[in-house]
Amino acid sequence: MTQARNIAIYGKGGIGKSTTTSNISAALADMGKRVIQIGCDPKSDSTNNLRRGRSIPTVLDAIRSGKKIETEDIVHEGFGGVLCIEAGGPEPGVGCAGRGIIAAIELLKQKKIFEEFNPDVVLYDVLGDVVCGGFSVPIREGVAEQVYTVTSADFMAVYAANNLFKGIKKYANNGGALFSGIIANSVILPVHREIIDDFADKTGATIAEYVPRSETITRSELRGQTAVEYDPDSEQAEVYRNLARAILKNQEKYVPAPLEAEELKGWAESWSDRLLIKKEEETGVKTPSDALTAT
Predict the structure, then answer these.
(1) What pLDDT score does 227 carry?
(2) Among 45, 158, 187, 287, which has the highest number of CB atoms less than 10 A from its own CB?
(3) More confident residue, 220 or 88
């Protein structure tokens, strides 16, 4: 049996985590790798773009049905043979959103899904707004060996990445997963890259790849596809192939150094000031002195 690479990809809601994960899965499948993608977001839409926009029944749906669960009830094939699983979430207004992850992992082990399909890579697509309860299972239980985070230059995305670093640090000494890199998403301007690079430098993190915002993604997702399937010869598809190759090659695992709350606040304010000064230099319009926090 192949020793699978178990990788968790975290990111705040709306940052492009599922888009990124699905394109990595598609790229790996294109390389001939056996891939399982497990959606760990209660929205249960992680794998939609691997299945032409079609959603699949979730593990929690199967458990709630009360019927005997067969493999085909929870494992569904997507583009390139990627095996798609959605953990699911609780019924509206009831229970913990992270419960689906715990239940899914328990059931997959019970059903010996990994032994049956013998994947090369298992990707866990995990909501990273909060790293607690069920959402921390891929880290704290050693389910994944490597963790990546998808972030942009926006403060709340960086804030979520910093919280993830705190979770990794908390569980590192108890067999928890370690960090392997930042996936910088929606990088349009040089300053976006500068901000993410500076955050990485301050926290001792590395950059796995810079992923530009692209109309190819918009068009492909409107068709319910990954960029790798929709436009395999596009620059965007090649970005994801490069990222997939980098992930396969990357054996680096470490504990990042998260910023404390006041440090992160000060770091963010310093960048706000720098951007105001940069705008002033470019436009020649003087910024009111009280708009700067550091003078």
Answers:
(1) 97
(2) 158
(3) 220
Residue 233 is among the residues annotated as catalytic for this protein: no
Q: Closest Cα to residue 45, out of 80, 70, 21, 71? A: 21
Give the 3-state secondary structure of residue 214.
coil
Residue 84 assigned to a binding site: no
Confidence of residue 294 (pLDDT cuts 50, 70, 90): very low
At 136, give phi and psi (nearest 5°): -90, -5
Cβ-Cβ contacts under 8 Å for 191 (sequence gap 6 or more): 153, 275, 278
Active site residue 286: no
Out of 68, 129, 197, 290, pick the active-site residue: 129
| 136 appears as a binding residue in the annotation | no
**Is the pLDDT score of 205 beyond 50?**
yes
At the second CATH level, the architecture of 5-259 is 3-Layer(aba) Sandwich (3.40)
The arithmetic mean of pLDDT across residues 271-288, rounded, is 77
Name residue 41's amino acid.
D
Is 217 labelled a binding residue? no
Rounded CA separation 201/207 (Å) = 10
Domain extent listing, the chain: 5-259
68 marked as part of a ligand binding site: no
Residue 133, pLDDT score: 61
Residue 211 has pLDDT above 70, yes or no: yes
Mean pLDDT of the region 36-48:
91
Q: From the CB of residue 290, how many other CB atoms can be counted at a distance below 10 Å?
A: 7
Report the side by side order of strands in the sheet with 121-127. 76-77, 83-86, 35-40, 121-127, 5-11, 146-151, 178-185, 207-211
Catalytic, 166? Answer no
